[in-house]
Amino acid sequence: MTGTRLLLYALRRLLQAVPMIVIILIVNFFLIHSAPGDPVDVLTGSMETSEEYIAELRAEFGLDKPLVQQLGIYLWKAAHFDLGYSMRYRQDVTGLILSRLPATLLLMGTALVFSSFLGIMLGVFAARRPYSLSDNAVTFIALAGYSMPVFWLGQILLLIFAVQLQWFPVQGMFSLRVPSHGWARFADLMHHLALPAITYSVYHLTLIYRLTRVKMQETLTLDFCTTARAKGLSEASVVRRHALPNAMLPVVTVIGLNFGFMLAGSVLTETVFAWPGTGRLLYEAINARDYPVLLGLFTFLSLMVILANVLTDIIYALIDPRVTYS
Amino acid sequence: MSVVEPLAATEVAEMPSAWRIFRRNRMSVFGLVLIVILAVLALLGPWIAPFSPYSTTAGPVMAPPGAPHWLGTDELGRDIFSRVLLGTRTSLLVGLAAAFIATFVGITVGALSGYFTGWIDDVIMRVTEVFQVIPRFFLAIVLVSFFGANLVNIILAISLLSWPELARIVRAEFLTLRSRQFVDAARVCGAGAMWLVFVEILPNALAPVIVNATLQVGQAMLLEAGLSYLGVGDPSQISLGMMLQQAQQIMRAAWWATLFPGVALAIAVLAINIVGDGLNDVFSPRSRER
């Protein structure tokens, strides 16, 4: 497909996401107003504030105006990336979230690459000898990984590898006396990243493994694979060149569709390891009743889920020649 | 054409053969036995617990697993075994209640959508899409922290966010079933919409519903544990997630406080997922051949 057509498709898909984003914002707005008590309590995040600041907030959000007008003001602010102000951090919510984002992306990205790669490998391995002892063993382990609460897995890894064996640091992203740059700093970062990334990978790994296994098993019995074998190709090359590319398509979809779950997993993982990302911010916001940050994060994470869905569709269109851009 | 007779014959043979397929998979039976044991323990929890789960005078502080305290005690000297029993009870309660409500809503919405089609279907599916995109864990956090952290709110928040998947499954089943001959036959006989939906179509769409509902129980239990771990659980109920949050403070001194609540939760969810997988094998025609 030509580049321009793909670009047009991507643009249209993005435009289709706009109503969804507006709906999320409206939900958010009604959450503020349906919470027990005065909306001002929500906007200040139950911090002690001066009368002037409250009056200022009332004017800013038009709280004495009709509800529809308030919604208009709210949407207008959101369209300008204004998600409110956190009294606790003395910072605007958007800036606060953006400052925490790189840590989350690093953790998610590392885990995603690692778990997708390993999950597909294991899935292919298990699918080649279905219902054999090794297949059953891996399948059971995968089911166990799938059933485990992610934060508990993190705690157990922490207990064994950080507290008992002391191979890894207990929490945070950098050591206290961290080298300011260069390889030493990078190594320190990786040292801190290892346990959270492994913890976070497990759920995703099992998901991708289970899916790849089923899809590979299906694909390997299809006619075109039989044809490839009849041509005299080795089983390894049938798997690698013919079956795998087909079986991988749904894996892409599943990563996109499960993005919301992945974000949830990152909140729990970051909380266990005190990893200073958006998830840890959410945990702090919950316990400090910092509602502007809580709602800002909810909006922001919803936005990320919607964008991930759009991105999935675009990637799908890129790698699957059968998709038409209509 | 004698369509009715062979259909009736297979229907009669369905139940015993389903149980036989399920039974053939030793793992599934193992999972089922585990669930029954856990359910009994949870039901009888308050009566089996050797100590009061709230009593801070039950034993020494942070006693390791041993004689009177099989799973040790926590930082306030409370008996962990008793607390795990009660926590599992809360987990199962939330999981079952949330899955039940989600299944009920999912079936209703999916049936409406798939039976009536047309604009009703369009509207319902748009709403379902919105619910699917909203990250449910975060909405649950917001809802519970705004409207109060109690069990009812937690169950409602989880179930409110869990029905869309099931609604889609039910809708898809209804779309294929509604134009089958046996439904047409009933319609020609003068059956009303209610009869068609509940007596003719729904029983035939139940297989994937049962599988999904089973898996929902485990998902809901994990969601509840995650919420209480983050501090939005019901503070008046002992929950495994809350126990794990408190255990993290004393992790260096008392590993048992972290290990056992998680083991209980993982076993419960694993057992449910194993049964769900087993049921899936029973109902998917492909696996009957092996």
Q: Which architecture of chain A would the CATH scheme give at its second level?
A: Orthogonal Bundle
Class by SSE composition of chain B: mainly alpha
> How many domains comprise the coordinates of chain B?
1
- What top-tier CATH class of chain A fits best? Mainly Alpha
Going by CATH, the homologous superfamily of chain A would be MetI-like
Number of helices of chain B: 11
Oligomerization status of the protein chains: heterodimer
How many strands, which pairing sense, and closed or not: the largest β-sheet of chain A? 2 strands, antiparallel
Please write the string of helix (H) and strand (E) elements of chain B.
Answer: HHHHHHHHHHH
Corresponding CATH architecture of chain B: Orthogonal Bundle
Q: Name the biggest interface.
A: A-B, 48 and 44 residues
Distance between the first and last residues' Cα of chain A: 13 Å
Our count of domains of chain A comes out at 1
Number of E strands of chain A: 2
CATH topology of chain A: MetI-like fold
Shape of chain B: elongated
Strand content of the residues of chain B, in percent? Answer: under 5%
Helix % of chain A is over 70%
Note the overall shape of chain A.
globular
List the helices and strands and how they pair.
The complex is a heterodimer of chains A (326) and B (290).
Chain A: H1 3-34, H2 39-44, H3 51-60, H4 67-79, E1 85-86, E2 91-92, H5 93-128, H6 133-147, H7 150-164, H8 182-220, H9 223-230, H10 235-257, H11 259-273, H12 278-287, H13 291-319
Antiparallel strand pairs in A: 1-2
Helix pairs in contact in A: 1-4, 1-13, 5-6, 5-8, 5-13, 6-8, 7-8, 7-11, 8-10, 8-11, 9-10, 10-13, 11-12, 12-13
Chain B: H1 4-24, H2 26-48, H3 80-116, H4 118-133, H5 136-147, H6 151-160, H7 163-177, H8 181-188, H9 193-230, H10 240-249, H11 255-283
Helix pairs in contact in B: 1-11, 2-3, 2-11, 3-4, 3-6, 3-7, 3-9, 3-11, 4-7, 5-6, 7-9, 9-10, 9-11, 10-11
Describe the structure.
With 326 residues, chain A is an all-alpha fold. Chain A has a single domain, classed as Orthogonal Bundle (MetI-like fold). Helix content of chain A is 77%, strand content 1%. Chain A has 13 helices and 2 strands; from the N terminus they run ααααββααααααααα. Chain A has a two-stranded antiparallel ribbon with strand order 1-2. In chain A, a hairpin with a 4-residue loop joins β1 and β2. In chain A, α8 runs antiparallel to α11 and α12 packs antiparallel against α13. Chain A is globular. The two termini of chain A are 13 Å apart. The mean pLDDT of chain A is 80. With 290 residues, chain B is an all-alpha fold. Chain B is elongated and about 75 Å long. Chain B starts with a helix and ends in a 7-residue tail after the last helix. Chain B has one domain: MetI-like (MetI-like fold), CATH 1.10.3720. In chain B, 76% of the residues lie in helices and 0% in strands. The N terminus of chain B is likely disordered. At the A-B interface, α1, α6, α7, α11 and α12 of A face α4, α5, α9, α10 and α11 of B.
